[in-house]
Structure formats: structure tokens, C-alpha cells
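Re: the 147-residue chain
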Amino acid sequence: MADRPYTEVAVGILVRADGALLLSSRPAGKPYAGYWEFPGGKLEAGETVEQALRRELEEELGVVIGPAQVWRVTEHDYPHALVRLHWCKVHEWRGEFEMREGQSMAWQTFPLTVAPVLPGAFPVLDWLAAEAGWQGAVQQPSANQLA
């Protein structure tokens, strides 16, 4: 893909009992601030994907997750980093959601109403939509046109 090293990232797809997915906005000061994404973060030295995801979701959202296994792995070349995304579906968590980095959160079904969404999430959104039997666009057309 590129001549720079990959940044390994654990990503949590939190799925509510009704099938809604949790997306959160990227906080100010980070690349792509204000974009919507599935929560997660970089793996630290010696961490497994599940350990990193557990740590990141507690640090960022204040929840403790149940079991998490890698579902899919994708790669995306952003201007600021070449990332390898380890996508984990999470169906169990405990605790109250706290936006500890000043971000926003939204439970979403298809079509998504939040925008803009990080480009690296679209392949996964397509797979999730297909699994859910959704056949339209994964995002409302008007959602792409934020000022």
C-alpha cells in the first residue's frame, strides 16, 4: 500500500439488542476531528486486539466490554497514517456511557444519519448493512452535505 509502517488499531462495533450500532465523533485536536467513527484506538506494545479495545473503550466511553473477537481486518491509507483496522463486534458491555474525550455518540441504523463518516469505515458499513438485509445506501444522501 505505502512505504510507511502500519498503525494497528482495534475497533469496536457495539451492537445494541435492537441492531443499532454505536458511532462516536472524533474529538477536537485529533486528525479528522468531528468525523464519525466506530470507537477504538491504537494497540500499545504487547497488547492483543481485545486488550487494546477493552482499554480504549473504558478510557474513551467509560464502559467495560464483554467478549470481543476480531470479525474483519481492513486497511486504509489516510494522509496522517496507514492503518490496519481490526474490527470486533461487541454485544455485551456494562457501565454508563460517558464521553470522556468530549466526543458525541449516536446509536445508528441504516441509513446512517450522522456525517461525515471516516472513509475507512465504509467497507465495514457495507458488510454490516448486507448482514442486516439493508439494500439501500448506508448513509442518507443529505448526511454527506454538512457545512
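The chain has two helices and nine strands.
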